[in-house]
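ok new one. same drill as before - structure tokens go in, u give me an amino acid for every spot. 171 of them this time. try not to just spam alanines like last time pls lmao
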């Protein structure tokens, strides 16, 4: 396997961050990768909200029980689906997933740690996020991505997920 492939496999969810700040420009670069994701009919039905307010990042764990790390994240990206561009939830959820994963990989390339926080399709969580951020009607909160430079103590071990038996070739 070449170095780029190995690097791709070394992405892990990061939940412990150092206090080093991420420049807005870097955040835009990684969001650009999200915008280059594939989408059904190429509708690109996404909208990205970058949360840099400490107050808001401290509020998130109160409405999302698996998001404790946002308290020490440097930023949180909320990936939203714009239902004016794509109202089929089956499609917008795949489009926004692709965008979310591209952002995680792009953050990894930049040396920025990231963790995907599930939002859609949990109704209560979605409603609470809509209220917290006063989202426009056309935006459906899909996922959040906590971002920060990784804490030095994090060890990155290979989780050894490759399973030959999950692959079937058909001739
Ligand atoms: C749809 C989805 C929702 C997730 N939600 C959370 C979450 O709420 N909190 C969290 O800490 N991690 C969350 N994760 C991250 C997973 O726990 C993580 O990807 C998984 O344990 C594999 O670890 P890895 O990302 O390090 O490879 C989520 C991942 C996905 C794809």
């Amino acid at each position: 396997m070449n170095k780029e492939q190995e690097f791709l496999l070394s992405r892990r969810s990061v939940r412990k961050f150092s206090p080093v700040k991420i420049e807005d420009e870097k955040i835009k670069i990684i969001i650009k990768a999200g915008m280059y994701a594939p989408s059904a009919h190429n509708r690109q039905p996404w909208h990205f909200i970058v949360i840099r307010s400490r107050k808001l990042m401290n509020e998130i764990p109160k409405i999302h029980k698996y998001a404790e790390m946002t308290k020490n994240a440097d930023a949180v990206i909320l990936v939203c689906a714009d239902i004016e561009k794509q109202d089929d939830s089956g499609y917008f959820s795949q489009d926004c997933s692709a965008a979310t994963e591209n952002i995680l990989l792009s953050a990894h390339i930049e040396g920025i740690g990231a963790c995907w926080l599930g939002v859609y399709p949990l109704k209560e969580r979605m409603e609470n996020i809509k209220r917290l951020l006063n989202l426009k009607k056309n935006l459906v909160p899909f996922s959040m991505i906590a971002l920060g430079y990784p804490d030095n103590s994090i060890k990155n071990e290979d989780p050894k997920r490759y399973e030959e038996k999950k692959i079937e070739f058909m001739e």
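The CA atoms of residues 63 and 128 lie 6 Å apart. and btw The mean pLDDT is 97.
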